[in-house]
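Hi Y.,

Following your request, here is the sequence exactly as I used it, all 171 residues.
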Amino acid sequence: MKKFIAPILILFFSLNSFAQKDFNVPKNYKFKEKSSYAKYEQDIIEATKWLINTPSDSAKSKRKKVNKFVVMWIMGSPAVTITIDEQFAMYSSSPDYLTIFMAAWASENLEKKNFKDKLAGTTAGVNAVLKYYEANKDKIGKDKKLKKYAKMKKKGKLEAFIKFQVEKLPK
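Below is the corresponding structure, written out as tokens. Let me know if you'd prefer a different format.
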């Protein structure tokens, strides 16, 4: 019996350690001066993780608040500039896709401290949207473009496709 319980406990604790961390929008956040954006960088990274990992049909009111916080930060941030190629404008099936794409781009830039890397930003954005899509497609509905990208990723061709598209963007 002891041999059976030990593996179950190990599995329980390891799964628990991977559980989604909750995120709360900072209270009374303000983006008045350019310097005020830097203090929320870690919040943007945590908000991005929350947006990607929270099911589309749960915490809808909170999702709106997190989306607003992220979009307002991105729009005014002096550090992050996002370029969205038409090819990757994925918001037809769910309004969450665009925010997740931009949030993942910003988080990638913040984590790597490389604010000019369009390829890394685009790749992070597409992969984040794909992760969210795969977890929520039964609730949100299928999307032809994302289904195509998922197949490309499975075949190991998505990265090259993204690179080709990004290289066509204006410098």
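The two ends are 64 Å apart (CA to CA).

Thanks again,
Q.
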